[in-house]
Amino acid sequence: MKPTDLLTLRPEGLFCPPAGVFIDPTRPVARAVITHGHADHCRPGSDAILATPETAAIAVARFGASAFGRVETLAYGVPLHVGDAVIRLVPAGHVLGAAQVVIECAGARAVVSGDYKRSPDPTCAAFEPVACDLFVTEATFGLPVFRHPPIGGEIAKLLASVAANPDRCHAVGAYALGKAQRLIAELRNAGWDAPIKLHGALAGLCAVYEALGVALGPLVPANDGVAAGDIVLAPPSALADRWARRLPDPVICAASGWMRVRQRAKQRGVELPLIVSDHADWDGLCATVLETGAQTVWVTHGAEDALCHWCAGHGIDARPLSIAGRDEGGE
Ligand SMILES: [Zn+2]
Ligand SMILES: [Zn+2]
To answer: Is the pTM of this model over 0.70?
Structure first.
């Protein structure tokens, strides 16, 4: 079997013919493998989903138990026969439970990365490179301008601003799944043990993380009151609307890979941009492509052309895979 026979693009999304499953379909299907719980990868309505136990718990917490006909779990590293193929889930280092999908059939191996990052994250298992013939990679930050600094320096920036502005609170815009919990865990590692105030939209997934063994320390609803000196976490949209007006003279912060682009920070009224991303940066993408040893690379999710061009320069057969319905605006 040719490696490229392992995967094909259908209107519903990426399909694996020998296994008869879709991976992160954008429409409801009979059977889907879900790489992780972000809404552009995990959508309600499919008859059956297969995911890591962590992603399954996140999916059910987000969409409710009735959103999927059947929820099947597969722990990292365990091979499962599906149709004529063997499927394995391998850590992607993106958010809790995030997996790459490894598909093997008749001596050929394909890996679908889902979203991934290579930098350490105390809230999830680290990315594991898997040698393969065909690698389907994301490229959210697939331009050389995107280089994410180590998170320790960004957390230090935030804590220095807190110390320098004792009469203000700090309101950090962070995506509800993954980014918020990673920031909290990194703040704890940096010695911030005061209660962290949470917008209601973040509470549910923080509770899921804690239930799955990721300790986050004292968390308090922001609705109970926010004082000067506090750190508050909220979805970026909440900081742009009326919700933020009740906060005491907030320093508006945002934690995103997009904060590398100064103009974006300005547009969004961000006073303190923190470059924190749960996606691989340019160097991470290139290094990962080489590590897989794949001769064929399909690029999805973002700046596809630049990475395809880079692959061609390294003798790798690459093409963009434009999957409708992907949205990394929330990153
Ligand atoms: Zn994601
Ligand atoms: Zn994504």
So the answer is: yes
